[in-house]
Automatic annotation (TrEMBL):
It comes from Eubacterium ramulus ATCC 29099. Residues 180-294 form the ABC3 transporter permease C-terminal domain. Keywords: Cell cycle, Cell division, Cell membrane, Membrane, Transmembrane, Transmembrane helix. Part of the ABC transporter FtsEX involved in asymmetric cellular division facilitating the initiation of sporulation. The chain crosses the membrane at residues 24-47, 173-198, 219-248, 268-292. This is Cell division protein FtsX. It is a multi-pass membrane protein. InterPro entries: ABC3_permease_C, FtsX, FtsX_ECD, FtsX_firmicutes-type. GO terms for biological process: cell division. One of its GO terms (cellular component) is plasma membrane. Residues 61-157 form the FtsX extracellular domain.
């Protein structure tokens, strides 16, 4: 156990020493890693807020279900029970004929109450009782509409097909662009960390050869370089995450105070919501990229 602890301490010490010995390459790798993680964090924060706005829009898009003439309240309630069991549905509410007429008057007769009063007690929307159905994922609208159109006592299903298709396509585009950018950033960071570790190997090649000659294991020789890559990745992730954390809150406050009209159009995700995902993902990316870059380089170049 003591030997294992000693070996672990030696590995960490040599990893740090390698970083210090190749200061210029290490600083360049850390800076590049920090830039990559910073760009990833910025992009993630923007995308997360866009998706939050889109989700708000999705949750406000309703499917409206109208009933056949003469449909009883019991039959309407039965339809409501079936709707409640559908996995696509997040919420729904029943709008009676009287409520439909009251909403119509408010929207179309505002300022012309005399015209609305001319209908007296007659309700021209007496057959327009309906269910308003809301979904979490607008891409599932078509499957829900198909199900509803096949049910008894339903005369019409009104949907916002163009809105649904636009939101679905936008979400798909954001996902594709996100994946491409992340892959590019990872490739750049792996390349630079590999160069740094390769330089360290070249500088210590003679020392590595001596260590192998006196019986040092492959793990004992390679481990410090892998630790070097991991530390570079970790440092390169922590720095931009701290900067982003400080910036995000200030940017939200600035936008809210400078562009007050946007408060009615969109709401930003709070700092905690964004960074409870961004911090672990950023650290895992940094450490993972450092490990992969150094591991691949060590495996390729240490053959003494």
């Amino acid at each position: 156990m003591k030997m294992k602890i000693s070996t672990f301490g030696y590995t960490i010490k040599q990893g740090i020493k390698n970083i210090w010995t190749n200061k210029m390459f290490s600083i360049a790798s850390i800076a590049t890693m920090a830039a990559c993680i910073f760009m990833f964090g910025m992009f993630y924060a923007i995308v997360a807020n866009f998706q939050h706005v889109v989700k708000d829009v999705e949750s406000s898009v309703a499917i409206t279900v109208f009933f056949d003439e003469g449909t009883t309240q019991d039959e309407i309630d039965e339809i409501g029970q079936k709707i409640a069991m559908r996995p696509e549905v997040s919420s729904f509410n029943f709008v009676s004929a009287d409520e439909a007429w009251a909403e119509y008057k408010l929207e179309y007769f505002d300022g012309d109450e005399a015209a609305a009063a001319s209908f007296g007690s007659d309700n021209p929307l007496s057959d327009k009782a309906n269910y308003e159905i809301y979904m979490e994922d607008i891409s599932q609208q078509s499957s829900l509409v198909s199900y509803l159109e096949g049910q008894d006592h339903i005369s019409k299903v009104r949907q916002s097909e163009m809105v649904a298709n636009t939101l679905t396509d936008f979400n798909r585009l954001v996902s594709i662009v996100s994946a491409v950018i992340i892959v590019i950033l990872i490739c750049v960071a792996v390349f630079l960390i590999s160069n740094t570790v390769r330089t360290g190997i070249a500088v210590r090649r003679e020392e590595i050869g001596i260590m192998k000659m006196i019986g040092a294991t492959d793990f004992f020789v390679r481990a410090p370089f892998i630790v070097e890559g991991i530390l570079i990745g970790l440092i390169g992730a922590v720095i931009p995450l701290c900067i982003l954390y400080a910036m995000y809150g200030k940017i939200i406050t600035y936008v809210a105070s400078r562009f007050g009209f946007l408060n009615n159009l969109l709401t930003f995700l709070p700092v905690q919501t964004v960074f409870e995902i961004l911090v672990p993902v950023g650290l895992i990316l940094g450490v993972g990229i450092g490990y992969i870059g150094s591991k691949a380089t060590v495996h390729k170049h240490i053959n003494v």
